[in-house]
Design brief:
- The structure is a homodimer of 709-residue chains.
- Chain A has 709 residues and is of the alpha/beta class.
- Helices cover 36% and strands 18% of the residues of chain A.
- Chain A contains 22 helices and 25 strands.
- In chain A, the strands form three sheets. The first copy, chain A, has a nine-stranded mixed sheet with strand order 1-8-19-20-18-21-22-23-24. In chain A, strands 3-2-4-5-7-6-13 form a seven-stranded mixed sheet, with helices on both faces. The first copy, chain A, has a seven-stranded mixed sheet with strand order 10-12-11-14-15-16-17, with helices on both faces.
- In chain A, helix 17 packs antiparallel against helix 20 and helix 19 packs antiparallel against helix 20.
- The longest helix of chain A is centred in the middle third of the chain and has 22 residues.
- Chain A starts with 5 loop residues before the first strand and ends in a 5-residue tail after the last helix.
- At the A-B interface, helix 4, strand 9, helix 9, helix 10 and helix 13 of A face helix 4, strand 9, helix 9, helix 10 and helix 13 of B.
- Strand 9 of chain A pairs antiparallel with strand 25 of chain B, so a sheet runs across the interface.
Chain lengths: 709, 709
C-alpha cells in the first residue's frame, strides 16, 4: 500500500478523485455546483489518467441531464461501471431513468452536490431539496458532511452499490461542502482497488446485455404480474443497510476512519438529541461537543445512510436517556405532514412503540434550516437544543431566519460561538475575478503542505460572479475542522479592493487585537484620513494592528496590471507568521509555478517578482487614539425609490439581506423592475474619460454601455 | 339553472368536460391512460365549443410533457386559465416546472390519471407512484375515487386553486377510474360558472405579466434571502384545507353531493379503520358497509385532499373508539421508512400524542395494494381489516399477491364477496378491435338512458391491444355502484370469439343458473359436441341457460364482415330482459346512429339491419344431463421450453399471471428471449392458403409475416 498524501482540495475534487478512478464511463452535463466534478473527470481523461481497471475512463458530455442519465442507463445495461455528477434541476431530469436503473437492480453511483430547486426564484446554492425529490425512486442515499467524507463516502458508495445491487446517490451540501477547500487525506488507487470487489465488478459486467447471450429487459408488465415484479426487490433492500455497514467497516479497517449508518456524538446520557445530515451534522458535532463539555446532556445523530432507512440502526444510535429529539431537514415540502427526515424518525419511534420495543414516545419536533445555503451556525444549533428544553417545544420551526408571517422561527443568540483561539481565522475581501479566491486557495495549500495545520477555505460570492464581492473565509487549526459555517470573528481581515471598505462593514468582523490589511493607493502616513469614520472607530476600539500596501502599484510595476493576489498573499504570510518568512516565500513561489506554469514563463516570472517586492511595500499604520474622519460609509442614492426598494432592494444591495424578515419578501417571487439604477457597484478601477474632440457621433458608446450611461 | 343530465361516460370524459370548460388554454401531450382527456378537449376545440369565459379553449399539443408543462407555466404567467392532462413518466417530466408554478403561487389544475412508473418493467396501468413522486413539489393533491367524483373533484379543484393560489393535481386511478364507464350526473355550464369565482379569475389574470405593467419573475436569490423567500408561502398552505372544505361545501349546496377532506364511512364506534384514497376507497366503502351491517366495528377513512395534509381534519375523521388503523398505499418506495400515506397518518397521531391531544398511540400498520392495476377487491379489504384483529398485526404488508420472498403478503379469502343479486352482472369476451368494447359501452348508454339503473362498464385488455382478449365487465344496479373491481360471478357471460372458449375459463365466471351466449359457427343442435369437456361440465353443474348465435353469418350477410358487435348486443338485450324488446331495439338503433353516423349512411344501415336480423338467429341450446365431449381446453406447445417458460411465461400466456408468486418473477426485470414461439394466439378467423401455382418467389411473404412463418 502506498502512503496516503494529505491534500488540499474541495468536496467536488475529492469526489471526482474517487469517481473517475472507480468508473469506466462518466456521462456528464454541467450544472452548478456539480460541474467541477465532471470537469475534473474530463481533464483526467484528457491526461490519459487510468482508472482502477487499467483503462482511461470515457467521459462524455450529453445534451442535458436527461440525456446523461439515459446514457448511463444504457452504459450500465451494457455492463460498464458508469457514473454521473449533477445537482438541482439536473437531478430532477434524471428521475425517470433513476426509476428504471433501480428497478433493474443496477449498480451505479450518482454523485450529487445537493442544491436548491427553482421555486419562487432560482438558487444556485445548497440544500437537500433535489436529493429529497428522489427519495421515492428506490435509490440508496448516502450523505457526506465534509470534503474528507466526500472522498470517503464516494468510495464507500462505489463499493456498496456493487455489494447490494442498489444504485446509490452519494450527496453532500452544494457549495458548503462541494466548494469548501480542506486539507484532507487522499485515498490511494490501492485503497480503491482494495475496496472495489473485482468479482462483483465481473458480476456487474456479466449482467450486461450482449449479443452472445441475449436477454430481454425493459418489458411491459400487465396487471397480472407487475405488482409481483415490483416486490421482487425486497430482499435486496432489506440486506442493504447491513451491507453498507460492512463496507464501512472494511473501509475503517483499511483507512482508519470509522463510519456508521448513524453516528452519535455527545453526552452518553443525553436527554436532548438533534438528528441531521450533511454539513449541518458537523456543525452540530461541534456544538454538542462544547455544550456536553459544559455539562449539558445533549447529543447529535449524524445520518449517513438515509435510504434505505434502517429504523433499527437509528434507534440503536439514540441514547436510552433521550427524552426529546429535534430533527433538522434542509428542505421544505409545503403542504406535507412534515419534512421527510422528521417523518422517518417518527415512523421509527412509532413502530418501536407499536412493537413493544419502547414504552412511550419521546417528544419529537422538526425544523427547517439552511435552505439555499442559508448559514447554519453553532448558535443556531444551540437554539434548536434550547427549544427542546422548553415546556412546549416549537414544532415545524425554522432556524436561521426571521419568519414573521406564520412565526415559525426560533430566536438564537448570534454571538454564541464554539470558535477557539487555537484556530487561526482570516477573511479576505476581494472582487470576483481579481484572483483573491485563487490566491487564498494557494495560501491553504501552502499551509496545508508546509505545516501540520488543517486548513479550510470557503469563498462567498454571489451569482453575479465577475466584479461582485468575494469573501474568502479561511481557518487554520491543529485539529480537524468541522466549522461548516462562515467566520464570525477573524484574527486577520484583508481588503483587496479599497472601494469595498466604504460599502461593507468588514472591520466589524475583526476580533479584538486583530490585524487589518488594506490594499490602498494611499501611503501609510496618508491613509488614515481617507478611511470612513466607522472604520477608524472600529480600528481604535478593537486595538487593531493596521497595515497598508499599494498592491496596484507593485502589480503595475512588474507588469501584472490589476492582479494583486500574489502580492496580498505574501503580505498575509508575513503578518500571520504561520510559516518562517523564507519558507513562506519559497512555497509561494512554488505555488506560482503550479498555478501559472501553463500560462507561460512570463506570467510566472511577473508573479514571482511581485511576491518578492511585496513586503518592501507593506507598511504598518499607527492607529491614532481617536477618530477624526468625517467620511461616511457609502450609502445608496434612493431618490424616487419605492418603499419596496428602500425596504428590500436596498438592504439586498448593501449585503444586509440576511436580516430581511420573511414578511418583506414577495410571496410569489414577483419583484419590481428598473431597480439596477439603485445599485452603484463602484467596482471599476478606472473610468473612461470622454474626449469630445475625438467623437464622430457614431453612437456606439450608448449601445455598448450596459447601463446606457 | 339548467337541469343536470345523467350521462354514461368514463372518468377521463368526466374530467375533460369540466377541464375544457374551466380553462382557456390546454397544453397537452398524449400518454396512456390520460390521452383521452386531451383528445376530448381537442375535439371540443375543433367543434368550436365555448368555455365558461365565452371563448374557445386553445388546445395545443407540445413535443413532450416537459414542453407541455413549460407551455402551461408560460401561459399561466401570462394570466390565462390553463391546464394539462398527463400520467406516469409524463408527470415526472413536469416536475421541474411544477416547483416553479407552486413557488410562484399560480392557480392551475393538472388532471392526472395516476399510473405506474417504469421500473423493473413498464406498466401502462394504474397506481399512485407518479402522483406520489410529486408530493414534495408544493402542489395540492386532490383524489377522486369514481367517474362521478372525477367530474365533481375536477370542478372543486378548479375552483379551489383560484381560492388558494395553490396549484392542484386532481388525480384518479388510471384505467380503473379513467377508463371505467359509469352513469353519472353531469355538471352543467351553469354549475361551473357558479363555482368559479370570476373575481378570482380576474385576479389571476391581473397577476399575469404584461408590458403595460412590467414586473420581474424568475429571479435568482442568494443565500441571504432565498430561505426567507421560501417561507413566504406558509399562510397560503395553512389556509388551503379550510378553503378546499369551503369549496366542497359550496359545491354540496349547489349540486347536492357532499365531500370532506377526509370522509368516514362505517360503524360509528369502529375499532378497526382503514385509510385509503382513490378507487380503493370505494371498494373499502362497500366492504365496511357489509361488515358493519353484520355488526363488525370497522370503518374507512377516504382521503380526498392528500396535500396539504390536514392533520386536524384527519384526526377528526377517525372515530374515538378506533384502536387500530391500516393505511393502504397504492405505491411502493423501496428503502423508505414506510409508504407516504402511512407515514402521514403516523405523523398526525404522533403529534397528537406529543401535543397532549391523545393519551396514546393506536396500532398503525401500512400496506401496499393495487400496483400496476392489480385488483383490489372487498375480499382483500376484509383481509386488511382481519389483519388488524390479529394479536400482532402484520406491518408493511402487501395484499392481492403472493409475496413469498420476504413474506409480506396477507392471505385473503378470494370467494368472499359483497355483490348482491340486486346488481346485474355481465361479462363480454371479445378480441381487441372487434367492436365488443364499443358495443358494451353503447349497452351501458342504452340502459343508463332507458332505465333508472346505474351502469358500470370496465374493459380489461392487455397492452397488446388489437387482437388480444378483451373482457368487458358490466354491472347494472338500482344504487350507485362502488364496485371498482372486476366481476367475480356474472349473471351473463357472452363469448364473441369461439376460439377463446378453448383458451379462457370464461364459463367458470358464470353464476349458478346464469346465461351463456356463444357466437358460434355451429348450429344449436350441433354446437354441444364442439365444446371442450370442461365447458360442458360447467354448464351442466351451473344449470346454465345456453344460447348460440352465428354472428359472423349475420354480419357477412348484411355486409359487415367480422363486425358482430351490434348483433351480440341485441341478443344480450333479449336475454337480459332489462328493457322491453321494442324499446331496446329502438334504442340500439339510436345508438347505432350516434356511433356510426359520421361513417356514413351505409354503415349505419348495415348495423341497423344486423340488429334487426340478430334475434332470428338466436337459439337456445338444451344442455344435456351429462358431458360427452373429449375435446380438451387448449394447451400450449411447450416442447423444448425451459423451466422458466413452463413456470412463468406459460401461465402469463394462459391468463394465469395473477397466480404467479413473487418468487417466480425475475428480480431485475430480465426475461429470456424467443418466447413468442410459445404463444399461439389463434385470433385469425381466416388463414391464407398458399397457392404454389401463383408464386413468383418474390420473397415478400417472409418479409411481411411478423412471425416469419
Amino acid at each position: 500500500m502506498s502512503e496516503r498524501p494529505m491534500v488540499v482540495m474541495d468536496g467536488n475534487s475529492a469526489v471526482s478523485h474517487v469517481a473517475y478512478a472507480c468508473n469506466e464511463v462518466a456521462a456528464i452535463y454541467p450544472i452548478t455546483p456539480s460541474s467541477a466534478m465532471g470537469e475534473i473527470a474530463d481533464a483526467k481523461m484528457a491526461a490519459d489518467e487510468k482508472n482502477i481497471y487499467g483503462t482511461v475512463t470515457d467521459v462524455v458530455e450529453l445534451q442535458s441531464e436527461g440525456g446523461a442519465s439515459g446514457a448511463i442507463h444504457g452504459s450500465l445495461t451494457a455492463g460498464a461501471m458508469s457514473t454521473t455528477f449533477t445537482a438541482s434541476q439536473g437531478l430532477l431530469l434524471m428521475i425517470p431513468n433513476m426509476y428504471k436503473i433501480a428497478g433493474e437492480l443496477t449498480s451505479t453511483v450518482f454523485h450529487v452536490s445537493a442544491r436548491s430547486l427553482a421555486m419562487q426564484a432560482l438558487s444556485i446554492f445548497g440544500d437537500h431539496s433535489d436529493v429529497m425529490a428522489t427519495r421515492q425512486t428506490g435509490w440508496a442515499l448516502l450523505a457526506a458532511a465534509s470534503p474528507q467524507e466526500c472522498m470517503d463516502m464516494a468510495l464507500i458508495a462505489q463499493a456498496a452499490t456493487l455489494e447490494t445491487r442498489i444504485p446509490f446517490i452519494h450527496f453532500f451540501d452544494g457549495f458548503r461542502t462541494s466548494n469548501e477547500i480542506q486539507k484532507i487525506e487522499a485515498l490511494t488507487i490501492d485503497d480503491m482497488k482494495a475496496m472495489i470487489d473485482q468479482d462483483l465488478v465481473a458480476a456487474h459486467r456479466a449482467r450486461g446485455m450482449r449479443p452472445e447471450d441475449p436477454i430481454v429487459r425493459g418489458t411491459s408488465q400487465n396487471p397480472d404480474v407487475y405488482f409481483q415484479g415490483r416486490e421482487t426487490v425486497n430482499p435486496y433492500y432489506v440486506a442493504t443497510p447491513d451491507k453498507v455497514q460492512a463496507t464501512m467497516d472494511r473501509f475503517a479497517k483499511l483507512v482508519g476512519r470509522e463510519y456508521h449508518l448513524f453516528d452519535y456524538v455527545g453526552a452518553p446520557d443525553a436527554e436532548r438529541v438533534v438528528v441531521v445530515m450533511g454539513s449541518g451534522a458537523d456543525v452540530m458535532h461541534e456544538t454538542v461537543e462544547k455544550l456536553a463539555a459544559d455539562g449539558e446532556k445533549v447529543g447529535v445523530v449524524k445520518v449517513r445512510l438515509y435510504r434505505p432507512f434502517s429504523a433499527r440502526a437509528f434507534l440503536d444510535a439514540i441514547p436510552d436517556t433521550c427524552q426529546s429529539i429535534a430533527v433538522l431537514d434542509r428542505t421544505k415540502e409545503p403542504g406535507s405532514a412534515g419534512e421527510p427526515l422528521y417523518q422517518d424518525v417518527q415512523t421509527a419511534l412509532f413502530e418501536a412503540v407499536n412493537n413493544g420495543e419502547r414504552a412511550s414516545l419521546p417528544m419529537v419536533v422538526g425544523g427547517r434550516y439552511g435552505l439555499g445555503s442559508k448559514e447554519f451556525t453553532p448558535a443556531m444549533g444551540k437554539a434548536v437544543l434550547d427549544n427542546l428544553s422548553a415546556d412546549k417545544p416549537r414544532n415545524h420551526f425554522t432556524i436561521g431566519i426571521k419568519e414573521d408571517v406564520t412565526n415559525t422561527s426560533l430566536d438564537y443568540e448570534a454571538g454564541w460561538s464554539t470558535e477557539t483561539d487555537a484556530v487561526k481565522r482570516a477573511l479576505f475581501f476581494g472582487l470576483g475575478s481579481d484572483g483573491t479566491v485563487g490566491a487564498t486557495k494557494n495560501t491553504c495549500k501552502i499551509i496545508g503542505k508546509g505545516t501540520d495545520y488543517f486548513a479550510q477555505n470557503y469563498a462567498v460570492y454571489d451569482s453575479k460572479k465577475a466584479g461582485a464581492i468575494t469573501i474568502s473565509h479561511v481557518r487554520f487549526s491543529p485539529e480537524r475542522i468541522r466549522s461548516a459555517y462562515l467566520i464570525g470573528e477573524a484574527d486577520f481581515v484583508g481588503c483587496n479592493s479599497e472601494p469595498m471598505l466604504f460599502q461593507y462593514d468588514m472591520v466589524g468582523k475583526l476580533k479584538q487585537g486583530g490585524t487589518f490589511l488594506l490594499n490602498s493607493i494611499h501611503a501609510a502616513n496618508k491613509v488614515w484620513d481617507t478611511l470612513p469614520r466607522q472604520v477608524q472607530e472600529q480600528l481604535i476600539a478593537k486595538k487593531a494592528k493596521f497595515y497598508v500596501l499599494d498592491g496596484y502599484d507593485v502589480a503595475n510595476k512588474v507588469g501584472l496590471g490589476g492582479r494583486i493576489n500574489v502580492i496580498m498573499q505574501t503580505a498575509y504570510f508575513k503578518l500571520a507568521g504561520i510559516l518562517p518568512e523564507d519558507k513562506a516565500q519559497a512555497m509561494i513561489e512554488a505555488e506560482v509555478h503550479n498555478t501559472y506554469g501553463k500560462k507561460g514563463d512570463k506570467i510566472v516570472e511577473m508573479n514571482i517578482e511581485a511576491a518578492r517586492q511585496a513586503l518592501a511595500h507593506l507598511h504598518e499604520v499607527t492607529v491614532p487614539a481617536s477618530a477624526t474622519s468625517d467620511v461616511p460609509m457609502a450609502t445608496l442614492a434612493l431618490d424616487g425609490a419605492s418603499d419596496f426598494v428602500r425596504e428590500v432592494t436596498a438592504p439586498l444591495i448593501q449585503g444586509l439581506g440576511d436580516d430581511l424578515p420573511v414578511s418583506k419578501m414577495p410571496a410569489d417571487g414577483t419583484f419590481p423592475t428598473a431597480t439596477t439604477q439603485f445599485e452603484k457597484r463602484c467596482i471599476a478601477l478606472n473610468i473612461p474619460d470622454f474626449d469630445a474632440s475625438l467623437c464622430i457621433q457614431c453612437g456606439m458608446c450608448a449601445m455598448v454601455c450596459p447601463h446606457s450611461v
